[in-house]
Specification:
This protein has 241 residues and is of the alpha/beta class. It is built from ten helices and six strands; from the N terminus they run E-H-E-H-H-E-H-E-H-E-H-H-H-H-E-H. Strands 1, 2, 3, 4, 5 and 6 form a six-stranded mixed sheet that branches. Helix 1 links the parallel strand 1 and strand 2. It is globular, with a radius of gyration of 18 Å.
């Protein structure tokens, strides 16, 4: 049976540790494999060298940026050793903090706001095996291209993951984030229903669908996440099986 990959793109190791343990368990029940690609930072807030107003990733190139992340993932040695190819990717989720980008007027926040607003409109993403294939296919007419497109959604935490999971609004050190991530991951595995309770808690703003969450987060300032929509998606996979 072909490997079915659900790819999570996350911005840091603490995000991976917090989320992957329980979600890996969920995927196993659905005969799918969770795989994670870390970007090591929020690239939508990263300036181009020697510039304070130009950013590495913008709304104009966010699509290409995500396609390149997937290519980077597929070319990792551990991924190649498992025989994972573009055709094995069944779903892509981009996991990110909102960093109050819809309410702060600084240039990095405005750029992130524009990038997220663009991403919220993505329903699918093209999956390329490598840069050569990407370049060749981009040169063809759209009607001639034979690149698989897979469903794509953005999972967000407002203002960040810790604000959602433990109600913290202070800036945390990397060491403390790592400690909290480890504790959350252990609780998710050892305490039945812990993960779902956190992300479905009535004190946390949630929406019925991904589409509604993309609209709602633009005006909602308190603790919020659409992780519940991912959990709903997993439930729908169970019913199909």
């Amino acid at each position: 049976m072909a490997i079915k990959i659900v790819l999570f793109i996350v911005e840091g190791p603490s995000d991976e540790e917090t989320l992957s343990a329980y979600i890996t368990k969920l995927m196993f029940k659905n005969r799918k494999k969770l795989s994670v690609q870390i970007t090591y930072g929020d690239k939508t807030s990263e300036n181009i060298a020697n510039s304070k107003t130009l950013f590495t990733v913008t709304a104009d190139n966010i699509n290409q940026y995500i396609e390149n992340i997937i290519i980077e993932y597929l070319n990792r040695k551990d991924v190649k050793d498992l025989g994972i190819k573009a055709k094995n990717i069944e779903y892509v989720f981009y996991v990110t903090d909102t960093d109050n980008c819809f309410f702060e007027e600084t240039l990095p926040r405005l750029n992130k706001k524009e990038c997220l607003s663009k991403m919220f409109n993505f329903k699918e993403i093209e999956v390329y095996q490598n840069q050569v294939q990407r370049r060749q296919e981009k040169q063809k007419n759209i009607s001639e291209r034979k690149i698989p497109r897979v469903p794509f959604e953005t999972i967000f935490f407002a203002k960040d993951l810790e604000a959602v999971t433990i109600g913290n609004n202070e800036k945390l050190t990397d060491e403390l984030k790592e400690k909290l991530s480890n504790e959350f991951a252990q609780n998710s595995i050892l305490i039945d229903g812990f993960f779902e309770k956190v992300f479905r808690d009535s004190s946390l703003m949630q929406w019925e669908t991904f589409e509604k969450s993309y609209i709602g987060i633009k005006t909602y300032k308190d603790r919020a996440s659409n992780m519940n929509n991912f959990l709903d998606k997993v439930d729908s996979w169970k019913k199909k099986d």
